[in-house]
Specification:
The chain contains 10 helices and 9 strands. The chain is α/β, with parallel strands linked by helices and 277 residues long. Helix 1 packs across helix 2. The termini are far apart. Bound molecules: ligand C2E and calcium ion (3 copies). The site of ligand C2E has 20 residues, from strand 2, helix 2 and strand 6. It is found in: Membrane. This is Bifunctional diguanylate cyclase/phosphodiesterase.
Length: 277
């Protein structure tokens, strides 16, 4: 038993070392990739049910490495969060989104942009202040920017992060809780932390309208949100039936493949031209 234990011990060390090495490799490739402009943003339109118009879009990061492989953010964001490169990536995302916002506005579409922020990006007040000055330098009203943060952060009681979120919001930036319904999702936390939107995760809706429990939960959530004056954005809307259910239940916004996949800036402008007029 002793030798087996020791072997397991070695095994874990080897695993850990291999994992660290993999992470370091990805980290270095990302760092170099940033310099080589391998990162870009795509935008997914968000429709306002009350007007039927696209009034927002979410900026999503893409990485096409030097070999031309497109790597999913679901793969590289967690690594960037662990190694700290998320700060540089996040800076790039905000800068690029601001530049693109100006282009979209000049093209005649007054839409807002939603930007994902990792928990780790939110632990420095100076950084938050730099974000605000970046937004202002581009002549963008802070109200046009929404930061999306995951629900686990709001429920974690991390005072420094929450203080920064309060500060950003006091400066006009809007806040959305991302992936709502995937974690602890205690509805009662919503009243503690003022946010402007909740984004209900795809998994919350994937069986609706066939699953009566999902429909009932959606209905309950929409009622609570309405009472708290929080707007609800349904994510991952893929079918006409989901769209109709959401509309009927008076959900505020929808986002998903049923409307559009995430688009490059050019394609977004084409899309807006066709959708809005
Ligand atoms: P997320 O913030 O929940 O973004 C929504 C994800 O769902 C996106 O995946 C989007 O392409 C995908 N999606 C949109 N509509 C549909 C649909 O109808 N069906 C399905 N099955 N999927 C849909 P993506 O772009 O691969 O991003 C994955 C995650 O990576 C994001 O999830 C977000 O957590 C993270 N991420 C992306 N960009 C950034 C960023 O700039 N900063 C940070 N910190 N995280 C980011
Ligand atoms: Ca998001
Ligand atoms: Ca989400
Ligand atoms: Ca409202």
């Amino acid at each position: 038993a002793k030798t087996a234990g020791r072997r397991t011990h070695y095994f874990f060390n080897d695993e850990l070392r291999a994992q660290t090495e993999r992470q370091n490799t990805i980290h270095n490739r990302m760092r170099d990739g940033l310099k080589r402009h391998e990162f870009s943003l795509v935008y997914q339109p968000i429709v306002d049910f009350s007007s039927g118009k696209v009034t927002k879009c979410e900026a999503l990061l893409r990485w096409k490495d030097e070999d031309g492989n497109v790597i999913s953010p679901a793969e590289f964001i967690p690594v960037a969060e662990r190694t700290g490169l998320i700060h540089e990536l996040g800076q790039f995302v905000l800068e690029q989104a601001c530049i693109d916002w100006v282009t979209v506005h000049k093209s005649g579409y007054p839409i807002e942009v939603s930007i994902n922020r990792s928990e780790r990006e939110l632990n420095d007040m100076e950084v938050a202040k730099q974000w605000l000055s970046c937004i202002k330098q581009h002549g963008i009203p802070t109200e046009s920017i929404t930061f999306e943060i995951t629900e686990s952060l709001l429920m974690s009681n991390k005072q420094r992060q929450l203080q920064i979120l309060h500060y950003l919001r006091s400066q006009g930036v809007q806040l959305a809780i991302d992936d709502f319904g995937t974690g602890y999702s205690s509805i009662n936390y919503l009243q503690r932390y003022p946010v402007d939107y909740i984004k209900i995760d795809r998994s919350f809706l994937n069986q609706a309208p066939d699953d009566r429990v999902q429909v009932a939960l959606l209905d309950a959530l929409l009622r609570v949100a309405r009472a708290l004056d929080i707007d609800v954005i349904a994510e991952g809307v893929e079918t006409k039936r989901q769209w109709e259910l959401l509309q009927q239940q008076q959900c505020d916004f929808a986002q998903g493949y049923f409307i559009s996949e995430p688009l490059t800036l050019d394609k977004l402008l084409d899309f807006l031209r066709k959708w809005q007029f």
